UniProtKB/TrEMBL annotation:
Record flagged with keyword Transmembrane: no
Keyword line: ATP-binding, Nucleotide-binding, Transport
GO molecular function, one term: ATP hydrolysis activity
Domain ABC transporter span(s) in chain numbering: 12-246
Record organism: Actinoplanes missouriensis (strain ATCC 14538 / DSM 43046 / CBS 188.64 / JCM 3121 / NBRC 102363 / NCIMB 12654 / NRRL B-3342 / UNCC 431)
Matching PROSITE patterns: ABC_TRANSPORTER_1 (PS00211), ABC_TRANSPORTER_2 (PS50893)
Coiled-coil annotated residue ranges, if any: none
One Pfam family from the record: ABC_tran
InterPro entries recorded: AAA+_ATPase, ABC_transporter-like_ATP-bd, ABC_transporter-like_CS, ABC_transpr_LolD-like, MacB-like_ATP-bd, P-loop_NTPase
CDD domains with a match to the protein in the record: ABC_MJ0796_LolCDE_FtsE
The protein's name in its UniProt record: Putative ABC transporter ATP-binding protein
Keyword presence, Endoplasmic reticulum: no
GO CC terms of this entry: membrane protein complex; plasma membrane
């Protein structure tokens, strides 16, 4: 097993994760017995060549897909064993997810989008909480704007605020800067760095060595297996490892 960072207990642990898509000769084994702990209060970047299994790991760990076998343990709960209703409730309260495509509701304002997870969980959003969440991502003045009135970087920051408003155990991010220009990407990465420094556990899939170098730990996958990791990464080291895997 790739061990967690020294001294940090896992926020979520993956044990023996396997996932195959398709059947027969066309079957693809996207995850092949993955074992990993994601340390509490740290930021882990997951990288690898196309088809390495990084998105499968992320989606299974976040409860968006079910593994064929293995355990995904959040505190004492194996989320792989939950039924659909229990899994949906857990995703609304204990897991945050940021998509590359933002996934904001176009008919809702920024503050309504941020409040949405709370409403879906049956909680009445406090106005101060929503305002604080938007202020934390630098968008307090755009709370009444709809997604079409915001830049891509601003939309992604709204998406991050929405994912964090429930104070999730783990924030998962799937290529959160992939659709952004350099300046917007830097702003989103700064936001994630501040969240991690404040104790938020973050797991991010990325293809970008610059984004990965902002994390505390980079984990590399190939052919559905973890093959390497770097603690305290820098851009050059991440780039060299990634090029080596793709070669």
């Amino acid at each position: 097993m790739i061990n967690s960072l020294v001294g940090a207990a896992p926020a979520i642990s993956v044990h023996g994760l396997s996932r195959t898509y398709g059947t027969g000769p066309a079957a693809v084994r996207a995850a092949d017995g993955i074992d990993i702990d994601f340390p509490r209060g740290t930021w882990t970047a997951v990288m690898g060549p196309s088809g390495s299994g990084k998105s499968t790991l992320l989606h299974c760990a976040a409860g968006l897909e079910r593994p064929d076998s293995g355990r995904i343990v959040l505190d004492d709960t194996d989320i792989a064993t939950l039924d659909d209703d229990a899994l949906a409730a857990l995703r609304r309260t204990r897991i945050g997810f940021v998509f590359q495509s933002f996934n904001l509701v176009g008919s809702l304002t920024a503050e309504q989008n941020v409040a949405l997870p709370l409403r879906l969980a049956g909680r009445r959003p406090e106005a101060g909480l929503i305002r604080d969440a938007l202020a934390a991502v630098g968008l307090a003045e755009r709370r009444r704007s709809k997604p079409r009135e915001l830049s891509g970087g601003q939309q992604q920051r709204v998406a991050v605020a929405r994912a964090l408003v429930t104070r999730p155990d783990v924030l998962f991010a799937d290529e959160p800067t992939g659709a952004l220009d350099t300046g917007s990407a830097r702003a989103v990465l700064d936001l994630l760095r501040r969240a991690a420094d404040a104790g938020q556990t973050i797991v991010m899939v990325t293809h970008d060595p610059v984004a990965a170098a902002r994390a505390d730990l980079v984990v590399f996958l190939r052919d559905g297996r973890i093959v390497d990791r770097i603690a305290g990464p820098d851009v050059r080291e991440v780039t060299d490892r990634l090029v080596g895997l793709e070669a």
